[in-house]
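Researcher: Hi, I'm a grad student and pretty new to this. My advisor asked me to get structures for two proteins we've been looking at. I'm not sure of the right format, so I'll just paste the first sequence and hope you can take it from there.
Model: That works fine. Here's the first sequence with its structure tokens right after it:
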Amino acid sequence: MSMTLEELGALASTCTLCRLAAGRTQVVFGVGSPSADVMFIGEGPGYHEDKQGEPFVGAAGQLLTRLLGEVGLRREDVYIANVVKCRPPGNRDPLPDEIDSCRPYLVGQLELVRPRVVVTLGNFATRMILERQVSISRVRGQRFELDGRTVVPTFHPAAILRGGGEASAQMAAIRSDFAAVRAILAEPPPVPAAVEEQLGLF
């Protein structure tokens, strides 16, 4: 991609490609390190995100920050984005055409940040990245190799808060998934296929 992350964000900030533009306070593009090894992808902005212009700043964001800290990561070490960049009214689920309208922005973020690991938070992000109609409860914690990246689906922090919080089985699961992400980062990065060919590994 020829533009920078900042230029893509500026383009998104005036986007009117779908109906969500009419009800937003501001576009919530993404935040974090532009060269992060890990990208977290959620569903869409909520009330607090829409007001502040930053993803995951409400209660779910506080939980995300805490989970990162438990495995030795900080928000500024990772990149955080959403499937849709504008808040759906009443925090409803994003509609298929809204997701499609926003898709180029997320694809651009992935191309520009180039993370080694992508953590999809919840059903919508997981289905979009894996391009299949999966249930998060069935695929969470698994590793998928996709376009040279490792994708690890897990529960959305908001679902943890709704589903019993600290003592829930979902909380234990998401902690396990975050630990798995940390373990992946400790592994040596894969050798690109072109380099393998040059080295005679194929």
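Researcher: Oh nice, that was easy. Here's the second one.
Model: And its structure:
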Amino acid sequence: MSDTLAARASQLLEVKHSRFLAQATSVADADGALAFLREVGDPAATHNCWAYRIGGEYRSSDDGEPAGTAGRPILAAIDGQGFDRVMVVVTRWYGGIKLGAGGLVRAYGGAAAECLRTAPRQPLVATTHLLLACLFDDLGAVHAALAPHLATKLQESFDENGALLTLELPVDRAEALKNHLRDATRNRVRVVSTAA
């Protein structure tokens, strides 16, 4: 199981008068990653290099630096620190001394790795959604079962037969919640659908 960031993080590194500012955040999708780039990238800087990993999806950019010297080392830092659903932008302000390809790899990768190493971590928990149908008489038992099973009510609607509830909860708690509700309501609560 991977971690994501619990909060935004940043790290400033100076290498031969060039400043490298690594900024990282958790993201849910590619659009969120690119929105973070637009937010923190500095148009006045020499380069805004970046990388993200979201599950099996990843992208990186050298933003004008020699190919493979910025984006890939940033991505390697994300993977090396065991993060997922993370975007890292490393902004460089050129200081007048060329670093060479190896120096760039170390600077970009090092700034990203140090930023992530000191960042607050949060475990990623796989969740699932359950759609439950229950009678009005069983609604109290359903509500009482949510917190102990770490379930969050996303939606609730009513009709003449009772209530429909959409819940989100950790995958590993779903079966226990179903069993609990079966026992607490004499099997009157129905699971209409399950989705990841």
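Researcher: Is there anything I should tell my advisor about the second?
Model: You could mention this: The two ends are 16 Å apart (CA to CA).
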